[in-house]
Amino acid sequence: MKRLNLAKFAIIVVWLSVSIVINNAQPSTGGRPEGGPGGRGGPNGQQLPPEQQALVDQITKELSAENLAVTIANSNLVAASFSVPVNAAKISEANSALTKARTAWAMKASAAFAKIQTSETKLSKESINRLIAISSGRDGRGGPGRGPGGPPRGRGPDGQ
Q1: How confident is the model over 74-86, as pLDDT tens digits?
Q2: What is the pLDDT at residue 154?
Q3: The pTM is what?
Q4: Taking the mean position of all CA atoms in its chain, how far away is CA 114?
């Protein structure tokens, strides 16, 4: 029974992760199906000029396979970590696979970025910030972002 629950959990984690990756890999159309102005823009609510958005979309599309590999490796590590009985070798193997997937993503991301930045059409500072936000998962979704340096949960921005 525990294995069945673990299998269900692993399937749900993989499904959600893949859904997120696929959603993030979709080219931005400015929030409207026909690609016109509108929508909330990016992490700061600002839209990029079309040529800059095309470059961001290009890099995102080029990294879709690596994003999927990282997602699957991460899900495998989660499943291995929660397996009963604990199998340290399986956890270590899953961790190594995740490290390799993240390294492959980083290498391809840096190559794609360098290729664009050495061309005549370079990414603007805003576009680079957008790529960082997308890559780190801070692309405007979710709550107030109480990561390191943020106020503790249950307190407002003024610490009260």
Answers
A1: 999 999 999 999 9
A2: 53
A3: 0.59
A4: 20
Q: List own/partner pairs for 118-125 with CB under 8 A and 24 or more apart.
A: 121/51, 121/55, 123/52, 123/55, 123/56, 124/48, 124/49, 124/52
Query: Measuring CA to CA, how many Å separate 62 from each of 57, 127, 130?
Result: 8, 16, 16
Residue 69 amino acid letter = A
Query: Using one digit for the tens of pLDDT, what is the confidence trace for 102-142?
Result: 999 999 999 999 999 999 989 999 988 888 888 876 655 44
Q: How far apart are CA 55 and CA 123, in angstroms?
A: 7
Rounded distance between C-alpha atoms, residue 110 and residue 64, angstroms: 14
Burial of 125 (0-12, 13-18, 19+ CB in 10 A): exposed
